[in-house]
Amino acid sequence: MKLIKYSITVITILTLVIFTNSCKSDTCDYDKDCPELNLNIGDPCHPGGDESINGTVSEFCQCSTDWDCPALQLNIGDPCSVNNDGNINGSIDDNCDCIPG
Questions:
Q1: Which position among 1, 32, 47, 73 has the lowest Cβ density within 10 Å, counted as fewest Cβ atoms?
Q2: Residues 6 or more apart from 46 whose CB is under 8 A from it?
Q3: Average per-residue pLDDT in the chain?
């Protein structure tokens, strides 16, 4: 029994060390898809480290600027404002148009 208890303790300590060191910020939220960025996949982000938010968190937890619609800085399926009035009431279609939805 003592060997099993020791093994569980070692695994728990190793897990704690891995999770503690995987986040570079004191404000990490482990409920996020990408805790090291404190963001979810698809969230807006700033890839250059500056204050301009012109990227999107990829499925690999990287801030990417590879837009489906570069002129809009949006991807197909992203929410958008049909009348450019600030009300999010549409989504970007395959032609990079904001359609009601």
A1: 1
A2: 52, 53, 54, 55, 63
A3: 75
Assess contact for 32 and 41: CB atoms under 8 A: no
**With contact defined as beta carbons under 8 Å apart, do 101 and 87 qualify?**
no
Helix (H, G, I), strand (E, B) or coil at 44: strand
CA–CA separation, 14 and 3 (whole Å) = 17
Whether 18 has a pLDDT exceeding 60, the answer reads no
Residue 22, amino acid: S
pTM of the model: 0.43
Report the percent of the chain where pLDDT is more than 70.
67
Distance, in Å, from the CA atom of 54 to the CA atom of 43, rounded to the nearest integer, reads: 11
Between the alpha carbon of residue 43 and those of residues 14, 49, 53, 54, the distances in Å are 30, 15, 10, 11
